[in-house]
Amino acid sequence: MSSIIDDPASFLHDLGELHDVSVRRVIYAVEQSMIDIEVADLNWNFEGAADYVPRPARLAFTGVSAFSIAAGQNKFHTTILAGPASIAHAYAITKAGTTRIDIVMSTSEQWHIEFETLTIHDNEILAR
Fold this sequence. Notes:
Layout: E1 2-4, H1 8-14, E2 22-29, E3 34-39, E4 57-62, E5 66-70, H2 79-82, E6 85-95, E7 98-105, E8 110-115, E9 117-122
Antiparallel strand pairs: 1-9, 2-3, 2-6, 3-4, 4-9, 5-8, 6-7, 7-8
């Protein structure tokens, strides 16, 4: 199931800013202007709640106009590459049809993505 997210800021807020969501894979397709972020469970922040249901998904950013990763406090650590990465929090802002999402990883790196459309593909894991 796929759904286009009309209000990325509210979407992230409603999911607890993706706190502790584990990133499984990131694909940046420059020629297609897209970034896919595969996560193990979008609902991880709510684990333990009575109505908790795991939600493996893929976040598909299209119309990507900018992407950067800023080093964290320890500019030489390789935590993101050496093992599972998790999100500390994520938030978004939209201006003039372009949205920027800022993702702060638990290791303090910051990912910045400017895009036109965010689509969530529930239970869709990229082919290995």
